[in-house]
Amino acid sequence: MGKIVIISGPSGSGKTTVCKLLEKDIQVKKSISVTTRSPRKNENNGEAYYFVSDYEFEDMISKGELAEYAKYCGYYYGTPLNALKEALKKEGFYLLEIEVQGALQIMEKFPDAISIFLLPPDKKTLSRRLVKRNTNKEQDMAVRLKTADKELEYKDRYDHCVVNDDLEETINTIRKILKLV
Ligand code: ADP
Ligand code: 5GP
């Protein structure tokens, strides 16, 4: 049976980068979420996310097609339930890169899920990484930094907290947690 791995952390903490590296292992697969936010330059529909309208997202909620969902910085994000169920039938790890409200829903529904909270080394570094990534409007960036404080309050609800300072070390730590090494 597959294992759910929740990866949360403030915007810019390195979740997407870390998940991409973990996914290099054939035992690791990442869930593709549904969202109502617009795609970034390098994001294709069906790869980074399924990009949908508010109407389509709310239709999925009412039909019970999402394992969890939340609103984050004004947009909906959710995990498709069917794909998750299919992944659990197979061996391996199924990564859910999701924010804290959704993570709490998954922890309740799937108590066996392994939860990991990714921390930036400090706030200055977080802000620098967000600026470097440069994929959000300035106003969005301010909202994300403000949201980071609230998100950090939830870190103790997770099984593991990992400080993402040196990327290679972060990957090794998580691989050890998952017993992939
Ligand atoms: P998130 O998905 O949590 O919002 P990203 O994975 O997009 O964060 O990372 C934000 C930025 O920080 C990216 O430009 C990424 O390349 C960079 N980054 C991620 N992890 C590290 C690290 N350990 N050291 C330096 N830069 C990093
Ligand atoms: P971003 O817009 O930077 O891609 O994502 C914003 C936030 O939404 C991040 O914290 C990310 O982990 C979270 N997120 C992405 N997909 C989902 C999802 O399916 N459900 C929930 N609850 N959060 C998600």
Topology summary:
Elements: E1 3-8, H1 15-22, E2 28-30, E3 33-35, E4 49-51, H2 54-62, E5 66-72, E6 75-80, H3 81-89, E7 93-97, H4 100-109, E8 114-119, H5 123-133, H6 138-152, E9 160-163, H7 167-177
Parallel strand pairs: 1-7, 1-8, 2-7, 3-4, 8-9
Antiparallel strand pairs: 3-6, 5-6
The protein binds adenosine-5'-diphosphate and guanosine-5'-monophosphate.
Description:
The protein has 181 residues and is of the alpha/beta class. It has a single domain, classed as 3-Layer(aba) Sandwich (Rossmann fold). It is built from seven helices and nine strands. The strands form two sheets. A five-stranded parallel sheet has the order 2-7-1-8-9, with helices on both faces. Strands 4-3-6-5 form a four-stranded mixed sheet. The longest helix has 15 residues. The mean pLDDT is 95. Bound molecules: adenosine-5'-diphosphate and guanosine-5'-monophosphate. Adenosine-5'-diphosphate binds next to helix 1, helix 5 and helix 7.
